Amino acid sequence: QVQLVESGGGLVQAGGSLRLSCAASGGTFSTYVMGWFRQAPGKERDFVAAIGQNIGYTGYGDSVKGRFTISRDNVKNAGYLQMNNLKPEDTADYYCAADSEYNGSWSLTTPNRYDDWGQGTQVTVSS
To answer: What is the pLDDT along the chain (127 residues), one digit of tens a residue?
Structure first.
């Protein structure tokens, strides 16, 4: 397993931006796929973005396409989620997830298939 710690959440006004970070330790980070998920109170955990071991692959949930950008720095053992043009409906706890054994047999949008999770960071977007 790899240990993940999210940071960068906070309170912003609609239209603002935040950059979330996910610091990884305990594994060879470059071999892990990474995803970001979010969960609002009383809601299911939804897919936000994912990035492959090959950083050339990125994918996004429909609701954040064009606004959020996922990236990673394998030298720093960190992943990032740049969130622009935030909306009140983006309010949620955001979680970083990673998996070292992805072989293409499951969708990167599926939260229960990721083995490793951070504790989350709260993002609140005011109207």
So the answer is: 899 999 999 999 999 999 999 999 998 888 999 999 999 999 999 999 999 987 678 999 999 999 999 999 999 999 999 999 999 999 999 999 999 988 888 899 999 999 999 999 999 999 9
Alpha carbon distance 32, 65 (integer Å): 23
State the Cα–Cα distance between residues 123 and 33, nearest whole angstrom.
23
3-state secondary structure of 13: strand
What does DSSP assign to residue 119? -
Tokens of 126: 């005011």
For residue 85, the Cα-to-chain-centroid distance in whole angstroms is 17
Tokens 């959020």 belong to: 68
Please state, in angstroms and rounded to a whole number, the distance separating the CA atoms of residues 116 and 4.
Answer: 7
- Determine the Cα–Cα distance for residues 67 and 104; give it in Å rounded to an integer: 26
